[in-house]
Amino acid sequence: MLFLSGCEKMFIEPPKNNPEAIFENLWTTFNEEYAPFEERKVNWDSIYNVYRPLVKSNTTDDELFQVLSNMLKVFDDGHISLTAPNRQVFYSNRIRREKIDDELFNKQIIKTYLESDFKTGTDESYIYGKIKNQNVAYIFFDYVADNWFVLEEFLNKYNNVNGYIIDLRHNQGGDFTYCFSAIGRLTNQNRYVFRSKTKNGKGKNEYTEWKQWYIEPNGNFVSKPIVLLADRYTISAGERSVMAFKTLPNVTFIGDTTNGAHGTMIGRELANGWYYSLVPQKVELFDGKSYEGIGLAPDIYIKNLISEIEQGQDKTLEYAIDRLK
Amino acid sequence: MDFNKNDFTNSKSYKLINKNYMRVSFIIVAILIFLSTATYCLSQDLKNSLRLQIGLGHIARQDFVFSPFIHRDLSPLNFGICYQRDKKYFQNANLRLALLSPSHSDIYQFFDDNKKETTSPHFFTLVDLDYWFGKSIKQTDKVSTKVGLSVNADIQALNYVYGRIGSFGYFSSFGLGGFVNQTYKFNDKNSLTAYASMPIISWFARSPYLVNDDEFIENTSSHSGVKTFFAFIGDGKPATLNRLQMVDIGANYTYHLSPKWDIGISYLFEFIHSSKPRNLLSYKNSIFFNTNFNF
Q1: Which of A53, A83, A207, B49 would be A275's cystine partner, CB 3.0–4.6 Å?
Q2: Do B208 and A266 touch (CB under 8 A)?
């Protein structure tokens, strides 16, 4: 019992479970741990002055969720979310929250462009096959993880095509190092992709050293033309994968600008059991610029129309096929 | 143990975490079981005992890398195996495994893109391997006191779950220190042993300041659980008592059924405190039911 009572006293007092303390805890955690304030043009101190007066000791859960959501909305960050009981997860990013143009990408329509022997991974983690009546191979990745290891099989199977379409539209992210490991055959030299640094202290300027990330040659080099597709739902590790492809001279990036949420994401919890996520990392592309909050723009901008999708057409994919046939 | 994951942006990534987590957990447990079994096999002699333990464990842990809150759990998934040899020298090899699901709040349902989801508690896999080598400094009919060197390996895989996303964390320490062990025989049937051990110097590795950074990501980039595990350990630093404080204090009550067999109950208190890169305080209380085989 002496051990127990002694140890309990050694714990640092956690944030209290009342509306005002919860607000303070969330605001302070962002203040100390969130990285891309400047990139997202968020003045966090002024945000405090706007939203703090809205929370009182008798603020209800509904009201608190609304205040916190509105406060997090200013980031418009695809990595920021707020989770609470019996509610929809709140996403700070407007595109993700309001599902803007979500329906302009449809995997069932994509399959109609492929020869019948196309392959899919578990839960459609990848889809690949040859485009009907064309000497062009297509592969889609739903997220970035070990599903990318199928790229080797894909390149081997379609080694006589004119070119490849690599579709990262609606890519949900994951772990970019899987992509970096998998695309070694697509480069014949080390190519600098981006650098990143992560917060390692509470101060505004407390970060780790910048770390530069490269893709490296690995295996039989493939130099065929590649069309890379992405859209506003291509996020996080999906975007870092786009960054890697942008270093390759034989790649044309077609589609829409990516989401613009690049840094790694971590989870946090509040005293009332709610969860939220934030970004403790800054990322700069090989050109020395940050595209956090901006997104990576395509070389050729094309966006499907809902009328085309309703007719079973994916004009972005058709454009990519035309480039390679 | 997901020694392979860094950038979790969706539930599919989280499923991948669990897959790798279980794979590496299995590898580590298999290695440790192998080591303890090897110790057992190499020491076939008289005055040996093998103890199997199963019992309840309660953890309270506050790790600011992951959360400012105190996470608690009471779990029946606590196992131990202990080989002891008491001849000219006293040797004790002890392997313990605990699976815990601590949380600071209740489980609840939420909706992600209109799909009903349920929160989960965090999930910790704690593995301890201790080896003591010492000798008796006091031996009477009633009391036996032993002291010596202790070597300990403490490996913890920490799977923190925050609703729709998860983060992997780790703690490992390989320490060298000392132990003291005192046994009091009430009579021919009943005895009580109390002990304490503490590492003085350790090789110590922990998750970075904010869960994952570039070094963490680089360590996972081999996509091999074993390589990642050793990369994490390789990133560690030597630590003395000013950086890492750990202590185990325990007691075993033993009832001698026969020359070959004993049963008993034991209590173990495990304490960890570290302030770098962020404050960690963890203590665990376990009660085990023991069966001893003497040979």
Answers
A1: A83
A2: no
The model carries a pTM of: 0.89
Query: Is the domain of A133 the same as that of A64?
Result: no
Last residue of a domain, one of A28, A57, A92: A92
Quick check: B212 and A86 CB within 8 A?
no
Instruction: Tell me, yes or no, whether A26 and A146 share the same domain.
Output: no
What are the pLDDT digits (tens) for A23-62?
999 999 999 999 999 999 999 999 999 999 999 999 999 9
The span from the CA of B281 to the CA of B275, in Å, is 8
In B, which residues are within 8 Å of A172 by CB distance?
Answer: 9-10, 12-13
CA distance A86 to chain B (A): 5
Q: Is residue A243 part of a domain?
A: yes
Query: Is the residue at A277 inside a domain?
Result: no
Looking at the structure, tell me whether residues A88 and A110 fall in a common domain: no
Range of the domain at A83: 15-92
CB contact under 8 A, A85 and B110: yes
Any A CB within 8 A of B74 CB:
no
The total of structural domains in chain A comes to 2
- Using the beta-carbon criterion (under 8 Å), do B214 and A211 form an inter-chain contact? yes
The two structure tokens encoding residue A325: 């046939």
> Does residue A254 sit in the same domain as residue A139?
yes
Residue B264 has pLDDT above 50, yes or no: yes
User: What is the tens place of the pLDDT at every residue in B150-164?
Assistant: 999 999 999 999 999
Apex B62 CA angle, B23 and A69, nearest 5? 90
Among A38, A65, A92, the domain-final residue is: A92
pLDDT above 80: residue B10: no
Q: In chain A, which among 46-105 make CB contacts under 8 A with chain B?
A: 79, 81, 83-89
- DSSP result, B43-57: T-SSSEEEEEEEEEE
Residue A14 has its nearest CB partner, among B68, B111, B209, at B68
Residue A28 lies in a domain: yes
Residues A43 and A138 in one domain: no
Chain A residue at shortest CA distance from B60:
A8
Q: What is the CATH number of the domain that holds A138?
A: 3.90.226.10
Q: Cβ contact (<8 Å) for A268 and B283? A: no
Q: How confident is the model at residue A8 (pLDDT cuts 50, 70, 90)?
A: confident
Which among A4, A125, A198 is the nearest to B210, CB-wise? A198
For residue A63, tell me if it sits in a domain.
Answer: yes
Residues A189-205 have pLDDT tens digits of 999 999 999 999 999 99
- For chain A, say whether B281 makes contact (Cβ under 8 Å): yes
Whether residue A112 is found in the same domain as residue A70: no
DSSP track, A261-278: --S--EEEE-TTS-EEEE
Residue recorded with tokens 């009660």: B287
Chain B residues with CB-CB distance to A83 below 8 A: 110, 119, 162-164
Residues A72 and A174 in one domain: no
CA distances (Å), origin A276, targets A92, A93, A186, A285, A292: 11, 14, 37, 27, 19
pLDDT in tens, A79-118: 999 999 999 999 999 999 999 999 999 999 999 999 999 9
Do the beta carbons of residue A260 and residue A199 sit within 8 Å?
A: no
Buried b (16+ CB within 10 A) or exposed e, B34-67: eebeebeeeeeeeebbbbebebebbbbbbbbbbb
Indicate the residue of B114, B165, B279 with minimum beta-carbon distance to A277. Answer: B165
Helix (H) or strand (E) holding B15: helix B11-42
For residues A112 and A172, state if they share a domain.
yes
